[in-house]
Amino acid sequence: MKKAIGKRVLGILVIGTGLMLTGTSSAWYADPWYRPYASGAMTYQRQNMMRHHGYGMQDLADMLDGRRVLNRDEAVRIAQELERGFGDELVSKYAPGAVVAGSRTVPWTWRHFGAFKGYAEAARQSSARLAEALEKAPGDQTFPRRRSWGPPLGPGYGRWGRPGGDAVPMAAIQEYTRLNATCHSCHMLFRGGRW
Fold first, then answer.
1. How far apart, in whole angstroms, are the C-alpha atoms of residue 8 and residue 179?
2. Among 31, 72, 131, 181, which is least packed by CB within 10 angstroms?
3. For residues 75 and 173, what is the distance between their CA atoms, to the nearest angstrom?
4. What's the pLDDT at 48?
5. CB 187 within 8 A of CB 113
6. For the chain, what is the mean pLDDT?
7. Can you give the three-state secondary structure of the chain, one letter per residue?
8. Of 77, 156, 154, 85, which Cα lies nearest the Cα of 123?
9. CATH number of 35-138+158-190, picked from 1.10.10.10, 2.30.30.370, 1.20.1250.20, 1.20.120.10
């Protein structure tokens, strides 16, 4: 009889502990759309947007550094997608209190929201100038082939593309550098570790 009661008590404790842990985790990781301002959904959208921006920036860096052939149409399309994703589109993903577990947005983002908006607008303008610079053909510029400028210059490689690829205008490299610096500055100020 004592063994039967002990098994029942143990079973109730196990079930109770399981329900308690499930309830706690569902309170923390429940459907994000039911949080204030739909902050979980907004954080999810914001992280996806930033991930896509990172992929676009990496693709452009590969083209400008000669790791991929510069396809001018594709590069312009990527720069225009970045332009559409910055500015007001980016700011709209930061409603007050839209921070949940797993977000890397630091709390002072909303205290200094004017500065954050300035960075978003600067990134939009810089990506627009990058798209314009990429649309223009490089013209009669001379392109020095220095080993210190990029990857090793093997057959068909180099900072200015491969045979069949377009030459990279210096204005595009300068605008990409400005855009990259703007992104990194904003991330240094308004992005922290996971909490």
1. 65
2. 31
3. 12
4. 87
5. no
6. 77
7. CHHHHHHHHHHHHHHHHHHHHHHHHHHHHCCHHHCHHHHHHHHHHHHHHHHHHHHHHHHHHHHHHCCCCCCHHHHHHHHHHHHHHCCHHHHCCCCCCCCCCCCCECHHHCCCHHHHHHHHHHHHHHHHHHHHHHHCCCCCCCCCCCHHHCCCCCCCCCCCCCCCCCCCCHHHHHHHHHHHHHHHHHHHHHECCCC
8. 85
9. 1.20.120.10
Say what the pLDDT of residue 161 is. 43
Q: Quick one: tokens of 37?
A: 């301002």
Distances (CA, A) of 83 to 103, 104, 180, 186: 23, 23, 13, 16
Tokens, residue 88: 């007001």
pLDDT digits (tens, 9 = 90+) for 109-154: 888 899 999 999 999 999 999 999 999 876 655 454 443 344 444 4
Q: Read off the tokens for 40.
A: 């979980």
